[in-house]
Design brief:
By secondary structure, the protein is mainly β. Helices cover 6% and strands 57% of the residues. The longest helix is centred in the first third of the chain and has 13 residues.
Length: 207
């Protein structure tokens, strides 16, 4: 029943009596500050972490943790409106690019409230985010600017009311076989009421 204590064990949390309440199609139990245990109607269980991000250093720290996480959790990051978050750290890389963030597992939800996420990678022009094959990512009301590729998406990406402005997407290619793009999408990407303004994309040939 709603609000009744249940015996539970999940993701290394010791069995305990958690009090679940029904909300938005799931049963949710707070287990400590900013952490909820969620039981979906389909039987899926997961942890949901929710944090308010006050500055660039905090955002970088959360992205650093996500880059190495192997947990199928849900992470919600709430940004402050009228705030610019500057990312300059090369957190992850593949064979071709440097990235300011990576999500390999679980779900990331970023509520931007109109905030700006801006690249300041110096000479190393950063891609913003690599989304792996076992991840889902949702950005809401975020402005993304000054990056190289913004998203490299391998599975599911949803952007709502976002602005992509002045991103410079280039691709190094000896044989000039394709174009650089702001969004590299290999699966499902949805852009709902988003704006793309003053972005540039080109190939830089080495041959």
């Amino acid at each position: 029943e709603t609000g009744s204590p249940l015996q539970f064990s999940l993701a290394g949390i010791e069995s305990n009596n958690y009090k679940f309440n029904y909300t938005n199609g799931s049963y949710v139990a707070p287990i400590k500050d900013n952490v909820n245990l969620v039981l979906g109607l389909n039987g899926n269980c997961y942890l949901m972490y929710e944090n308010t991000i006050n500055n660039s250093a905090q955002l970088t720290s959360h992205f650093r943790s996500l880059a190495s996480s192997t947990q199928y959790d849900v992470v919600k990051l709430n940004l402050l409106g009228d705030t610019t978050y500057t990312l300059s750290e090369h957190i992850w890389e593949d064979q071709e690019w440097y990235y300011a963030s990576r999500v390999a597992y679980g779900q990331l939800i970023v509520n931007g409230n109109g905030a700006i996420i801006k690249c300041d990678g110096g000479e190393d022009l950063l891609n913003f985010m690599y989304i792996g094959r076992e991840a889902n990512v949702n950005f809401v009301n975020v402005n993304l600017t000054k990056f190289n590729h913004v998203f490299i998406n391998q599975v599911n990406l949803l952007c709502e009311n976002c602005i992509f402005r002045e991103n410079y997407a280039y691709k190094l290619d000896v044989y000039v076989t394709g174009l650089g793009t702001v969004i590299h999408n290999y699966n499902t990407a949805v852009f709902d009421y988003c704006e793309f303004t003053d972005n540039d994309a080109e190939v830089m040939s080495l041959g």
